[in-house]
Amino acid sequence: MKTVPASILTLVTGVVVTLISLWVGQNNHLLPIQASEQAPLVDDLFNVMVIIGTAIFLIVEGALLLFMIQFRQRPGDESDGSPIEGNIPLEIVWTAIPSVIVIGLGIYSVEVYAEMGGFTPEGGAMMMSHNHGGSSTKGSALAASLEDAPNLTAPGLGDDMPMAEAQIARSYGLGAKPGMEALEPDVTVDVTAMQFAWLFNYPNEGVYTAEMHVPVGVTVHLNLDAVDVLHAFWLPQFRIKQDVIPGQKTELQFVATKTGTYPIVCAELCGSYHGGMRAELFVDEPEDYQAWLTENAIAQGGGVIPILAANPADLTPGEFLAPYGQAMGIDDSLVQHLSHHHAL
Ligand SMILES: [Cu+2]
């Protein structure tokens, strides 16, 4: 041990730590399967963080164990340790290394976000600087969204709005990839979040459902809106997650790469039954998707769900009660009998 120069030991340790860290980074299997084109981008970033984390863990814990053994108290040694206080070069080094790592990861993650469409004109951080409207504009934007809320499709916050509010009405989230803004998405779904459910509307086909279907291999664009409180739309296997905000449109864009059924999870504590706020995403072959869509479009008459569209205030008491009467087995003859009886 004493005969091997410290520089060689350091070099060998460095190589071993690097190899182990690279291996753990590629073989950690901590994330679910990748089911979207966007997933590998996020996973590469995650794996780089695992590589760095593993290296730091090995170096710190390794040094700790080594020093515990090497500088342990020997029998009969009652002396004090050396009075060491402060070490400027050491402090500069252990400040500089984490700074470089954190700044590097920051730049990398911004690049991944941009590649996923986070900085397209429609979405993302470009609008942040415009978004410091006063409390009065925020209040009116919220009021506008609450008025829109009952019709569930919530068609934006209006195109004829004053400038300040129109800026707030722009959308956050993942839009098209850079340079692809001009291309229309193949499938558009309006997603409405509410306590405690997801509602999916295919606006071009007039289909409303509680489960989402998309075809594999095409660009899917989601317009997200909430009618009550904050929710978050999370597709773990797609590595995408976006807050759903009342009064502030958000969006997501992705391409599914594997057919199958995937969970849609609300990832924002939104109330007592938040844990049950889940739905399913079915990634279908294009012909299966088309069949499902056609079936639902026919079943729903190409329009809206009647139970959501009917406003009880527009119905006479008789019309409103008729379905309930039928359900209870009350027919015309019984009604006749009752009115006759009442007349006496
Ligand atoms: Cu929720």
TrEMBL record:
It is a multi-pass membrane protein. Residues 22-120 form the Cytochrome oxidase subunit II transmembrane region profile domain. InterPro entries: CcO_II, CcO_II-like_C, Copper_CuA, Cupredoxin, Cyt_c_oxidase_su2_TM_dom, Cyt_c_oxidase_su2_TM_sf. Its main location: membrane. Coiled coil: none annotated. Belongs to the cytochrome c oxidase subunit 2 family. PANTHER family: CYTOCHROME C OXIDASE SUBUNIT 2, CYTOCHROME C OXIDASE, SUBUNIT II. This is Cytochrome c oxidase subunit 2. It comes from Prochlorothrix hollandica PCC 9006 = CALU 1027.
